[in-house]
C-alpha cells in the first residue's frame, strides 16, 4: 500500500483498520474481510493508478459507491483494496437541448434529478434509497425503484459509460444519442455487472421531460392481498399508465404503524399506493380509485394536494427503515410476471408460516417485483437456518412462476448459492468467459455476482 499511497495525491489512501472497516460494509448484515486499505478516488486518474497497481501486485479490488447496496456487492473481501468513487460527484454536463447529463459515479441520484428539474427535466430512475444512493451504484446493480413501472430501470436511462478496466485501460461505451446500434451493447453489459468487469468513472444518462403538474396519488386498503393484486392487473389493463404502483403487506404496514402511527385498521391485509403524473392525473387517479373499489378495496384515499400526495408516498418510503427497527434484515428482491403476482404473494405468506419467520413484503407491483424482507434478531451475525429455508422456498417459488432471483438489487454475495438455479450451467459458463475477457486475473470484486 505504501507504493500506491506515494503514487496518488496525499490523503487518497487510508490504512487505519478502524477507518477502513467503515468502508468495508454495505447495508447487509454480512461480515466483511479485512481490507488492506481504502482508496478515496477523486478522479479517473486515481482509479487508473489504483487498478494498474492492483494488477501489477495481483491485489483484489472491491469498487464501492455510497454503500447502500442490499446484496453484499460492496462487501470487502479478505486482503482487498476498497476503491471508493463516492467523492467523484460532479455533474459534468447537463444538456437541456439533448436531454442528457454526463455525471461522475458518486453523484447522489436525488441530486441529479433535482438538477434536471431546474431545466424542466427529470432523471427517471427512482430507487427507494434515491436520497443516499449514487448513480454509479444504481448503474452497478441496474437499480429500479418506484417510477420504473412507467419509465423503466437504470439500464433504460444509460446511454454510455466511461469504464476503467482491471489493467487501467479506459473503455468508452455507448454514445450521446438516444439511438445507436454500432457494435455490441457494452453499455448494457456493464450496467448490472456489480463491479466485476470494470469501474465506472462517468456515465451519459438520458433525461426526460418532467411532468407539468404535481402527481395525483391514491392509497387503497384491502382485506386480501389477492384482491390488491387483482386491482394491480385491472389498473394496468385499463391503460392507466401509473407512474408508481406499490403494494405493502400487513406486516410492513404494522411495522410502519408501530413506528409512526399511521392509523392502521384491523383487517387491512395490504395497501396499494398508485400515482399518475399525466396531465390528466386527477382523472386517472379517480379511475384507479374506482378500479380498486371494484376489486374489493375497503377504503381508497385520493390526494387533493401535493402535500397530501407526498404524505401518501412517504408511507412507502418509510418501509425499510421501519423493518430495520424490528431486527436484522435479509432483504430480497424476486420478480415474477405480473400475472403471477397473486401466487407469489401467497407463496411468501406460506413460507413465512411454514418456517415461523417474520416476512415483511413490499412490491413494485406494476412490475411484479417483490421485496420480501426476512427479519431476524438483532445481534445475530447471520440468519438462522429457518430464515435461509424460508428464503430458499421463496426463491424457488419465484423461479417456478417464471420469475427471477433479483429484479434490481443484484446478486452480490447473498444470492450466489442460488444463481445457477436460474442461469443454468451453459449461461454460467458464458458469464465466466465474459468476466475473463475484461478481468483475466479475476481481481475485480472477486466472489461476487457471476
UniProtKB/TrEMBL annotation:
InterPro entries: FAD-bd_oxidored_4_C (IPR004113), FAD-bd_PCMH (IPR016166), FAD-bd_PCMH-like_sf (IPR036318), FAD-bd_PCMH_sub2 (IPR016169), FAD-linked_Oxase-like_C (IPR016164), FAD-linked_OxidoTrans_Type4 (IPR051914), Oxid_FAD_bind_N (IPR006094), Vanillyl_alc_oxidase_C-sub2 (IPR016171). Gene3D superfamilies: 3.30.465.10, 3.30.70.2740, Vanillyl-alcohol Oxidase, Chain A, domain 4. Keywords: FAD, Flavoprotein, Oxidoreductase. Its cofactor is FAD. Residues 31-210 form the FAD-binding PCMH-type domain. GO terms for molecular function: FAD binding; oxidoreductase activity. Pfam families: FAD-oxidase_C (PF02913), FAD_binding_4 (PF01565). Belongs to the FAD-binding oxidoreductase/transferase type 4 family. This is FAD-binding oxidoreductase. It comes from Spongiactinospora gelatinilytica.
Amino acid at each position: 500500500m505504501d507504493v500506491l499511497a506515494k503514487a496518488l495525491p496525499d490523503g487518497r489512501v487510508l490504512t487505519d483498520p478502524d477507518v477502513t472497516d467503515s468502508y468495508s460494509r454495505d447495508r447487509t448484515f454480512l461480515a466483511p474481510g479485512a481490507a488492506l486499505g481504502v482508496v478515496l478516488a477523486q478522479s479517473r486518474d486515481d482509479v487508473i493508478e489504483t487498478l494498474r497497481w492492483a494488477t501489477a501486485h495481483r491485489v483484489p479490488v472491491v469498487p464501492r459507491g455510497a454503500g447502500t447496496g442490499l446484496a453484499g456487492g460492496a462487501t470487502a473481501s479478505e486482503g482487498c483494496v476498497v476503491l471508493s468513487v463516492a467523492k467523484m460527484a460532479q455533474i459534468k454536463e447537463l444538456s437541456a437541448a439533448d436531454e442528457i447529463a454526463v455525471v461522475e459515479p458518486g453523484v447522489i441520484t436525488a441530486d441529479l434529478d433535482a438538477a434536471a428539474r431546474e431545466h424542466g427535466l427529470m432523471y427517471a430512475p427512482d430507487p427507494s434509497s434515491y436520497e443516499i444512493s449514487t448513480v454509479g451504484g444504481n448503474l452497478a446493480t441496474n437499480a429500479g425503484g418506484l417510477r420504473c413501472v412507467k419509465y423503466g430501470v437504470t439500464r433504460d436511462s444509460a446511454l454510455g459509460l466511461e469504464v476503467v478496466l482491471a489493467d487501467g485501460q479506459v473503455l468508452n461505451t455507448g454514445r450521446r444519442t438516444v439511438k445507436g446500434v454500432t457494435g455490441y451493447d457494452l453499455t448494457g453489459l456493464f450496467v448490472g455487472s456489480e463491479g466485476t468487469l470494470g469501474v465506472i468513472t462517468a456515465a451519459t444518462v438520458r433525461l426526460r421531460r418532467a411532468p407539468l403538474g404535481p402527481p395525483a396519488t391514491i392509497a387503497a386498503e384491502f382485506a386480501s392481498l389477492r384482491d390488491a393484486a387483482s386491482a394491480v392487473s385491472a389498473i394496468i389493463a385499463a391503460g392507466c399508465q401509473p407512474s408508481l404502483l406499490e403494494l405493502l403487506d400487513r406486516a410492513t404496514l404494522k411495522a410502519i404503524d408501530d413506528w409512526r402511527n399511521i392509523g392502521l385498521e384491523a383487517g387491512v391485509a395490504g395497501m396499494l399506493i398508485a400515482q399518475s403524473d399525466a396531465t390528466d392525473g386527477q382523472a386517472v387517479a379517480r379511475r384507479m380509485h374506482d378500479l380498486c373499489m371494484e376489486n374489493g378495496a375497503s377504503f381508497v384515499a385520493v390526494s387533493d394536494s401535493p402535500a397530501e400526495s407526498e404524505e401518501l408516498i412517504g408511507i412507502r418510503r418509510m418501509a425499510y427503515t421501519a423493518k430495520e427497527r424490528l431486527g436484522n434484515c435479509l432483504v430480497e428482491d424476486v420478480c415474477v410476471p405480473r400475472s403471477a403476482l397473486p401466487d407469489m404473494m401467497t407463496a411468501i405468506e406460506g413460507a413465512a408460516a411454514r418456517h415461523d419467520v417474520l416476512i415483511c413484503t413490499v412490491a413494485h407491483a406494476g412490475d411484479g417485483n417483490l421485496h420480501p424482507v426476512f427479519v431476524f434478531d438483532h445481534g445475530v451475525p447471520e440468519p438462522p437456518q429457518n430464515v435461509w429455508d424460508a428464503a430458499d422456498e421463496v426463491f424457488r417459488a419465484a423461479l417456478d412462476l417464471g420469475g427471477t432471483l433479483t429484479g434490481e438489487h443484484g446478486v452480490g454475495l447473498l444470492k450466489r448459492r442460488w444463481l445457477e438455479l436460474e442461469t443454468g450451467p451453459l449461461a454460467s459458463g458464458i458469464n465466466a468467459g465474459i468476466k475473463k475477457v475484461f478481468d483475466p486475473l479475476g481481481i475485480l470484486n472477486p466472489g461476487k455476482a457471476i
